[in-house]
Amino acid sequence: MLKPKSTPTRELVNLDGVWRFAIDTRVDPEPWKGLLTTPLEAAVPASYNDLFTDAEIRDHVGWVYYQRPVRVPRGWGDERILLRFDAATHAARVYVNDALVGEHIGGYTPFDIDLTDVVSAGEEFRLTVAVSGDLSNETIPPGKIEVGIDGRRKQVYFHDFYNYAGLARSVWLYSVPLTRITDITVVTDFDGSTGTVDYKVATSWEREVRVRLADASGTVVAEASGTTGTLEIPDVTLWRPGAAYLYELTAEMVEAGVVLDSYPVSVGVRTVAVRGHEFLINGEPFYFTGFGKHEDLAIRGKGHDNAFLVHDFQLLEWTGANSFRTSHYPYAEEVLDFADRHGIVVIDETAAVGLNMGVVGGMSGTPPFPTFSEQYAGAATQAAHAQHIRELIARDKNHPSVVMWSIANEPASNEEGALEYFTPLVALARELDPTRPLTYSLVMFATFQNDLIIDLFDVVSMNRYYGWYVATGDLKSAELYLQGDIQGWVDRTGKPILMSEYGADTQPGVHSVWDQVWTEEYQVHYLEMNHRVFDRFPQFVGEQVWNFADFATTNGLHRVEGNKKGVFTRDRKPKAAAWALRKRWRGLDGRKPGSEGTAETDGQK
Fold first, then answer.
1. Which domain does 96 fall in, by range?
2. Contact 50, 66 (CB under 8 A)
3. Is it the case that residue 597 has pLDDT exceeding 50?
4. Which positions are catalytic?
5. Domain Glycoside hydrolase family 2 immunoglobulin-like beta-sandwich spans what residues (predicted)?
6. pLDDT tens, 214-243?
C-alpha cells in the first residue's frame, strides 16, 4: 500500500482545510445530492466531537457528512486519478457529485478510491464523505449501541479512551500513471559489513523494472533489475535505535528507455529477532524504555498535528525513552516516518482493544456472557480483525522503526474460545510478515496460570497495575504481587518479558509526605517500586509506562477530565514522574539495568 508522494511521475493535491459539516439528523435523507444545507464547518484533519459547543454533535451516534469542492489539475488528463483518505473513523462512504464511488470500514488505516472514470482533468466536482463513528461486534474496536429510555441511541464501547470520530487524518487527490508500480516490499539483513535489501515490486502491467539504492548523501550504492531481487551494500550503515540511518530505494517501470513510473521508499537496514529471553535488534540485546501513547489532543481529538508530533518526540528524547507502543490503534503514518528518521523504536498495535467482556463485568473477571461468542467476539469480529491486520501490515511493513506487531490489547486470553479466535489471526500475521515478532498486551486477570494463547506469540507483554487497581496505595504488597507474577511468566514461557503498561493516575499539583494515591509523589514511588522488580529479572526486556500524557476517556465516575496516568499533562507539562523517568532512562543507554559492558556491545544507543 503505497503512500501518495510527489515523484517525477506522480502528483498530489492536499485537501485538508475547512469543510462543510452536518450530522445525519439535521439534513435531508440523501444529503450528498447537492450542497449540504448546514451553517457548520469542520476542520480536516480533526475529530469533529470537540470542535463544536453543541452536545448533540459531540455525542452523536450515526453518520456525519463532510463536503467540499475539488478541482482536478488540468495536466492529469492521461493519468489515473485517485482519492486517498489516511483514515476515516470508523467507516466511510464517499460520493462524487450524486454518486457513491467507494466505501471503507476501519478507522485507522488508509484507503484509496479510483475516480478516473467519474471526474475529468481541469474540472471541479463536489466531494461528500459520510463518516460513522459507530461501533458494533462487527467492528474493530468492538462496541454496541443501546437505545435509552428517551429513545436516543447511545454508543457503548469497551475501551477506556474517548471514541473520537471523523476525518482525523489528511485527505489527498493524487495522480498515478496508467502503467504503474502498485506496491513495494523490502526486507533487510546484514552479514558483517555487507548489508542486503531483498525487494519485491508489484506492478499493474508487466514491464521492465529497475531498482537503485542510494545512501543518505544521494550516492547510488547498489542497482538491480527485475520485480524481485537482492541489493548488496558494502560497508553498510545500519539503522539503530537512537542512531537512525536511511537509504532510499527507487523503483522504476521502464519501456523502451522511457520511465513510465517512479516511486521511492526509505530503507533502514536492520534485523529483529527473539533469542531465548532476549529481544535483539541487529543481533544485540535491546531494552525498551518508553510509553504507551495516544493520539489525543484538546479540541482536535485524534486529529493529526505536526507541531505536537515534533514536540512529543522531543519529550521522548528528553526523558531518555527509546520506544513507544501505538496503543491502541495504528497511528498516522507521519508518526512512523518521523520515528524512522529519528531512531525511535515502535511496537505497532492493531485497533483490537476491548475484546474482553470481563472488563465490562469489572475487575472481578466475571463477564456477563462469554467474550468469544456470537453475541460479542464471533466470526464477524474475527473477520474484521483479520482485515485490520492485513491493512496494518500492508501500510507499515517497510518501516524500520516498527520492530514488533501487537495484534490485540487486553483480550480475554483466559477465556474459552480465545485459542480458536487467535490461532488463525496469528497465522495470518506471520504469513504477511515472517520477519517481525508478535505480541499482545495481557490484561491483569489473564495470568500465567490461566492464559490460553501465549504459546502462539514471541514476547510476553504485561499490563499490570499492582499498587493502583490491585493493592491500591499499598506498595509493599504490590511489590510482592508483581514479583510473583513476573516469576510465574518466566517459569512458564522462557520468553522475553516486557511491561507494556504500568501506571498510576496523578492529579498535577497534588502532594503529600505519605504515599497517598493521586499525588505526584505516589506516582514516582509507584514507578520506583515497579523498576526495582523489573531489575531483578534478566528475562525482562523493557518498560513502557502508561501513559505518555493524560488523555480523554468516557464520562465515567472514576475519571475526572480523563485518564490522568500521563507523566505529562494533556498539554505536555511534566509531572514529577517525568523527571524521575528521565533520571532512570538517560542512564541506561538501551541496556538492561544492571547489565555489564558498553552500549555498543549490549544494546543500542
1. 11-176
2. no
3. no
4. 410, 501
5. 179-270
6. 999 999 999 999 999 999 999 999 999 999
Rounded to whole angstroms, the Cα distance separating 575 from 10 reads 46
Q: Select from 316, 432, 420 the least CA-distant residue to 377.
A: 420
CA distance 198 to 185: 8
Which residues contact residue 476 at a Cβ distance below 8 angstroms, ignoring those fewer than 6 apart? none
What is the DSSP code string of 181-208? EEEEEEEEEEETTEEEEEEEEEESS--E
| DSSP symbol at 90 | S
**Cis previous bond, 90, omega within 30:** yes
- Side chain identity, residue 236: V
- Do residue 460 and residue 323 come from a single domain? yes
As a whole number of angstroms, the distance between CA 470 and CA 316 comes to 29
- Sorted by sequence, the CB contacts under 8 Å of residue 482 that are 6+ apart come out as 464, 466, 529, 530, 533
Burial of 470-494, coded b for 16+ CB within 10 Å and e otherwise, reads bbebebeebbebbeebbeebbeebe
Provide the pLDDT for residue 600: 34
Would you place residue 603 in the very low, low, confident or very high pLDDT band (cuts 50, 70, 90)? very low
pLDDT at residue 548 is higher than 60: yes
Distance CA 317, CA 587 (A): 13
Cα–Cα distance between 177 and 204 in angstroms, integer? Answer: 10
The pLDDT of residue 596: 41
Cell representation of residue 258? 522511457
- Which set of grid coordinates corresponds to residue 72? 482536478
Residues 350 and 422 in one domain: yes
Choose one of 176, 205, 236: the last residue of a domain.
176
Q: How many CB atoms lie within 10 A of CB 427?
A: 11
Going by DSSP bridges, is the β-strand pair 345-349/91-96 parallel, antiparallel, or unpaired? unpaired
